[in-house]
């Protein structure tokens, strides 16, 4: 059998395992899912799963990472269609709108411990892998003129993270009648980011389209490629 054919079959098998693991995660939650359950549902031996992933945790980390890649792939398509999606207020609005409508991504965004169990903490790191570090990312945004430079980068990225996290986590803390729709929530977040973190004057359209957008697109494409390759490596034997 050709090596490429073997590799293709292994990849298909790994994708099947990830698909079943994702289904089981949504149905039962991380704590209640066993590798044996996934193997049985996938119609393979338990040992076959361990050929790809050495632990249950590493398997589900790959499930989560693949989900993050899917969210950012969709976000990239929006960015390619409309360069204004590179503005932080538009970017975060779209990311949350996409993510909150995908059950696993939503669980990651809101830190759903009941569904994700101990993966909640590890996924906080996975969510930001592509950004190198938050401070480096904000330096990059400043260099493009997309965020203000009237406070320290460290404080700025902290405040930005606090704002986004608050919008993700606030619902369980307030009365049901005080909650708003997803569209209203992401619009409100976009308004806060626009007013609090971006310069009063947006980047000129021609500069944004011809200079800033290509740089931003290259940045995200490279990070998402790196993330996708990480998923592929995790799937290989």
Q: How many domain units?
A: 1
Indicate the mean pLDDT.
89
Estimated share of beta-strand residues:
under 5%
Q: What is the radius of gyration? A: 20 Å
- Given as residue ranges, the uncertain stretches (5+ residues, pLDDT < 50) are none
Helix content: over 70%
Distance between the termini: 17 Å
Strand count, sense and barrel status of the largest sheet are: none
Overall SS class: mainly alpha
Say how many strands there are: 0
In N-to-C order, the SSE pattern is: HHHHHHHHHHHH
The DSSP helix count reads 12
The global form is globular
Structural account:
With 237 residues, the protein is mostly helical. The protein has one domain (65-235). Helix content is 73%, strand content 0%. It contains twelve helices and no strands. The protein has helices at residues 3-28, 35-42, 46-52, 56-81, 88-99, 103-110, 113-116, 119-127, 134-143, 153-169, 182-197, 205-235. The longest helix is centred in the last third of the chain and has 31 residues, at 205-235. It is globular and about 60 Å long.
Reconstruct the topology from this structure.
Elements: H1 3-28, H2 35-42, H3 46-52, H4 56-81, H5 88-99, H6 103-110, H7 113-116, H8 119-127, H9 134-143, H10 153-169, H11 182-197, H12 205-235
Please name the defining characteristics of this protein:
237 residues; mainly alpha; 73% helix; globular
Summary, kept brief:
This protein is 73% helix and 0% strand. By secondary structure, the protein is mainly alpha-helical.
């Amino acid at each position: 059998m050709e090596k490429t054919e073997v590799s293709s079959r292994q990849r298909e098998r790994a994708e099947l395992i990830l698909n079943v693991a994702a289904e089981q995660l949504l149905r039962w939650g991380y704590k209640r899912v066993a590798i044996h359950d996934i193997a049985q549902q996938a119609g393979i031996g338990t040992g076959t799963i361990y050929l790809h992933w050495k632990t249950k945790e590493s398997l589900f980390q790959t499930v989560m990472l693949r989900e993050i890649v899917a969210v950012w792939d969709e976000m990239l398509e929006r960015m390619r269609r409309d360069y204004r999606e590179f503005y932080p207020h538009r970017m975060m609005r779209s990311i949350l709108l996409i993510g909150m409508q995908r059950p696993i991504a939503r669980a990651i965004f809101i830190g759903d411990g009941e569904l994700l169990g101990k993966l909640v903490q590890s996924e906080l790191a996975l969510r930001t892998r592509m950004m190198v570090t938050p401070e480096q990312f904000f330096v990059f945004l400043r260099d493009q003129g997309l965020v203000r430079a009237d406070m320290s980068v460290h404080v700025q990225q902290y405040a930005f993270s606090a704002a986004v996290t608050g919008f993700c986590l606030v619902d369980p803390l307030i009365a049901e009648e005080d909650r708003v729709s997803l569209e209203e929530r992401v619009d409100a977040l976009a308004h806060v980011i626009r007013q609090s973190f971006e310069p009063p004057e947006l980047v000129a359209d021609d500069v944004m389209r011809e200079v800033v957008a290509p740089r931003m697109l290259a940045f995200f494409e490279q990070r998402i490629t790196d993330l996708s390759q990480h998923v592929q490596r995790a799937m290989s034997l």
